Amino acid sequence: MFASITEGFKNTVNKIRFRDDEKALKKAVDELKKSLLKSDVFHKVTKEIVVAVEQETKESGIGRDNFLRALKNQLTAILTVKGNQGFVFASKPPTVVLMSGLQGSGKTTTTGKLAHFLKTQKKKKVMIIAADLQRLAAVEQLRQIAAKIEVELVADEHATPAQIVKEGLQRAEAELYDVVLIDTAGRLAIDAELMDELAVIKQIASPDEIFYVADSLSGQDAVRTALSFNEKVGITGVILSKFDGDSKGGVAIGLSHQVGVPLRFIGVGEKMEDLEQFIPERIVNRLMGAGDIESLVEKTSAVIDEKQAKAINKKIKKGKFNFNDFLDQLEQMKKLGSMKSLMGMIPGMGAMAKQIGDMDLDNSDEIRYIKAMICSMTKKEREDPELLTNSRKRRLAIGAGLDQVQVNRALKQFKSAAKLAKQLSGKGGRGMQDMMKQMQGGGFPGGQR
Ligand code: GDP
């Protein structure tokens, strides 16, 4: 996700051999500047970062470690502005959030994602109020989203936005909802009517937060419109949507600093799970290549069935991981979204994530071979990989429409995965290193083309 920036940092640091002199520092600083600009970080923000990093490094003594520390400090400073970080609940429920944004920014989808995040990860009782009555299709879209994530929706196409907000909030109070998300009207561009409508809803709802959803693909326009909304209605947070499409990522670095309002979440895909909290320290660690295990754990726990995960873990530890478990694991992985976004969160894996690209778990050849092969197995064979003798393998090849080489390769990958799973479950911290080694060796399913 931040692949280009992280890559830039790595190049900066790798190219520079500090010899305790100012010339070397100047070179490092120039490289840093180039890499930030290349990643679309706003030029003024870039300048601020670069100047501050240079000064801090000089003060603490020119050297690679001090340069990196200065970079980390300055990135943290740029990303941290006054205001709430992540999602903050009001002291007295319900926490009321107005969702605002221009049409097409991803506001409706993001409202669904946020509701899903609060319900599944924070275990809250969530209500959505459909107050975007400008675009009637938006109500229907929300209806479908709410049904899918099983969250209460208050909607009435015949009411006014003010009426529906009042009705929803009364119900939320009476029925003890924890959070109410109000989807407000979107427009193609900022106009007075839109701002007036928002102001009216703001007055009625006295929201705890006003989030502005901006499309990261619109680059600096996202910043400009956020500034405009902030000036006219006052926002407390920004959510950058479609971050998965913006490989450069620089807009997320400068945004909070430029708008003066914290970036709270980023949308990283079209699925309901594809929303991540933007916590400055975590992001800085990720940018510096230290990974972001907390985000990974959050994301994983949201979709993986806990009971199933425990059962599989037990089997793995006993070395009894079989083909059925393997199929289950593949399904779970699919739910987690693309491998790429996940791998970016694992320390040291950012660069590899780029190599692998968007692996498609449905359409990769390896996965299709393995699935076809497993489908041709008898129940007993699925449960016990040891049963697969050469004659059985020949039968599988015919059944799955594969040749012998493909079957052998698929089996080899299954064995690597089982071995890898066992190592991961057994050795705590070292597991991650083993996993990297395995993946570099191409032993992970799909890691080899
Ligand atoms: P609205 O008009 O602002 O309510 O926008 P929608 O919620 O309808 O979103 C517009 C389009 O952007 C839809 O096709 C969404 O699926 C898509 N979208 C929203 N957020 C994301 C995101 O984080 N990543 C990607 N890839 N697509 C997104």
Task: Describe the 3D structure.
- An 8-stranded mixed β-sheet has the order 3-2-4-1-5-6-7-8, sandwiched between helices.
- The chain has helices spanning 3-15, 22-38, 43-60, 64-79, 107-120, 136-149, 161-174, 192-205, 220-232, 250-259, 280-287, 293-303, 306-317, 323-335, 339-343, 350-356, 365-375, 379-383, 390-400, 404-426, 430-440, and strands at residues 95-101, 126-130, 152-154, 179-183, 209-215, 237-241, 263-267, 275-277.
- It folds into 3 domains: 3-79, SRP54, nucleotide-binding domain (Four Helix Bundle (Hemerythrin (Met), subunit A)), CATH 1.20.120.140; 95-288, Rossmann fold, CATH 3.40.50.300; 296-438, Signal recognition particle, SRP54 subunit, M-domain (434 Repressor (Amino-terminal Domain), Orthogonal Bundle).
- Strand 2 (126-130), helix 6 (136-149) and strand 3 (152-154) form a beta-alpha-beta unit.
- Helix 17 (365-375) packs across helix 20 and helix 19 crosses helix 20 (404-426).
- The radius of gyration is 25 Å and the shape is flat.
- The protein is 58% helix and 9% strand.
- The chain is built from 21 helices and 8 strands.
- By secondary structure, the chain is an alpha/beta fold.
- The chain binds guanosine-5'-diphosphate.
- Guanosine-5'-diphosphate binds at residues 101, 103-110, 138, 186, 241-242, 244-245, 267-270, 274.
